[in-house]
Design goal:
alpha+beta; 41% helix; 3 domains; single chain
């Protein structure tokens, strides 16, 4: 079907000029539709572009929100770690302080005993080097590195805590207080035998005291034996671990039993004159790794019970 055609005539009455335009209906309507729909299409395109941009902005905002929440959680976690490390450092600082008597007692212990108690140390590594590294490209890298550093520091503090715990155990096992109140009547080493048999080795120290006076454990430990032992008479032996053993001889009575756990200053028995003794006194011995040692080397003058 052919499109209808229309002619538009414009005449100038003055000059008599006549102009004619012939138009086809369908193309004309199509052109008019295009002209009028173009602004609408432009508007729709702008709207769609704006909506897409808003969608991207919303997605970006949601992603930033998630990152923010994640960073807050990581910050809280790091804060907890830092507080835990600070508390551990404060606790270790308090435990590291020794009173002068304890420091002297530990210093007098044989090196073999100290090394047996403390063991080997750990190899240090530069834990802070990675924090200063220029390769940290994102906050996640920084948080991860901080967590790593704090984790390594916590491990170091745990090792230090273990060392202090072992030192405290060794200090508790060091025979450092006097086992009885009284005068020192015989020292460790060669002396004249009190029964007139010439010079002989004295395997401990003697402390003169009245019969029935209390005898004290010089350190923490476990009662190894408590009974009669020939010339020693009634004797208590205590194993303090770390190769340290003490003996308390010539007792008139016992206050402990074999296998019992005792603490420094606890009463073990009473001064007596049982066995080979010229009168009431306490014979006190110290063995280090099975070898008789001068007990005075570890006793502190102002730590009597």
């Amino acid at each position: 079907m052919k499109s209808r055609r229309y002619t538009i005539v414009i005449a100038d009455r003055t000059t008599g000029v006549v102009r004619r335009w012939t138009l086809s209906l369908r193309p004309t309507l199509t052109m008019l539709a295009v002209v009028f729909s173009l602004p609408v299409l432009v508007g729709l395109g702008t709207r769609w572009s704006t909506l897409a941009e808003l969608s991207n902005i919303r997605k970006t905002a949601a992603s930033l929100q998630l990152q923010n929440e994640s960073f807050r959680a990581m910050t809280a976690e790091l804060t907890d770690q830092v507080e835990s490390v600070q508390a551990a450092v404060g606790d270790l600082s308090e435990k590291a302080i020794l009173d002068p008597d304890s420091a002297r007692a530990l210093a007098k212990l044989p090196a073999a005993v100290r090394s047996r108690a403390m063991g080997g140390g750990s190899t240090a590594t530069p834990i802070a080097r990675s924090v200063l590294s220029p390769t940290l490209a994102s906050p996640e890298d920084t948080f991860g590195t901080l967590r790593l550093v704090l984790g390594r520091l916590t491990s170091r503090l745990e090792l230090a805590q273990g060392d202090l715990d072992r030192r405290a155990e060794l200090l508790g096992a060091t025979p450092s207080i006097w086992p009885a109140r009284g005068a020192l009547s015989a020292t460790f080493g060669m002396r004249e035998d009190p029964f007139g048999r010439g010079r002989a080795a004295h395997t401990g120290i003697d402390i003169s005291a009245d019969k029935g006076q209390p005898v004290y454990a010089t350190a923490d430990g476990t009662v190894q034996s408590a009974g009669w032992n020939g010339d020693y008479g009634n004797v208590v032996a205590i194993n303090h671990n770390f190769g340290l053993v003490t003996r308390y001889a010539h007792l008139s009575a016992f206050s402990v039993r074999p296998g019992e756990r005792v603490e420094r200053g606890q009463v073990l028995g009473q001064v007596g004159a049982t066995g080979r003794a010229t009168g009431p006194h306490l014979h006190y011995e110290l063995l280090v790794n099975g070898q008789l040692t001068n007990p005075l080397a570890l006793l502190t003058g102002n730590r009597r019970p």
